[in-house]
Amino acid sequence: MQILAHRGMWETTAEQNTLAAFARAFDAGFGIETDVRDCRGRIVVSHNPPTGDEPDFEACLELLRGRPLPLAINIKADGLAEGLGGMCRTHKAPDWFVFDMSVPDMRQQLMAGNPTYARMSEVEQTPPWLEEATGIWLDGFAALWYGADTVASLLKRFRVCVVSQELHGRDPAAQWSMLRPCASSANLLLCTDRPERAKRYFQGDMS
């Protein structure tokens, strides 16, 4: 299992999606999940509609340079496929993928040759263009709707990034316990607000 720090490693919400939070995660050996949008001709890191003060996404790629860590890019605006893909390739990002875009933009991401994860959730159990997807972004908005058998089956065909339950305000204990038998798979990723705790847990510390 590879662990992704959701919006970097942070202690307060103000630190989320900052270059400092990204650097902290990379230095600790974690990949990250982050959000991108366009703003005045720039691709910026931003979950919400940008104001213009957000860091350039390119600065995140500079921090990642030379580190073989995964980078999950949550697409918050349409029309970024060509520019984003070119930027990631120019900076030689070693292990990146896009996800969570609109359905029309997912087609553009695939046509641009960008590694694209299809989102699978309780309301999207048959994602569009599944056969063309690089991997699965496995989410549960209201509940843990899938089990270990689902994850194991998906891992036979795809890389799978699981959204940890605390991102939706729920205790992840049951989910983490369910995932533990699959944790030895190199194709399993976990996106979490608690990367250090997840690392300890999946490496053998049950606390």
Residue runs with pLDDT of under 50 for 5 or more positions = none
Q: How many separate helices?
A: 7
Helical amount:
25-40%
Mean pLDDT: 96
- In CATH, what is the class? Alpha Beta
- CATH level-3 fold name: TIM Barrel
Biggest β-sheet: count, sense, barrel? 9 strands, mixed
Protein model, in words:
The structure is a single chain. The chain is of the alpha/beta class and 207 residues long. The protein is 29% helix and 23% strand. It has a single domain (2-202), classed as Phosphatidylinositol (PI) phosphodiesterase (TIM Barrel, Alpha-Beta Barrel). It has helices at 19-27, 57-64, 81-90, 103-111, 148-155, 173-179, 195-202, and strands spanning 2-6, 31-39, 42-45, 70-75, 95-99, 117-120, 135-138, 159-163, 188-192. Strands 1, 2, 3, 4, 5, 6, 7, 8 and 9 form a nine-stranded mixed sheet that branches. Helix 1 runs parallel beside helix 2 (57-64).
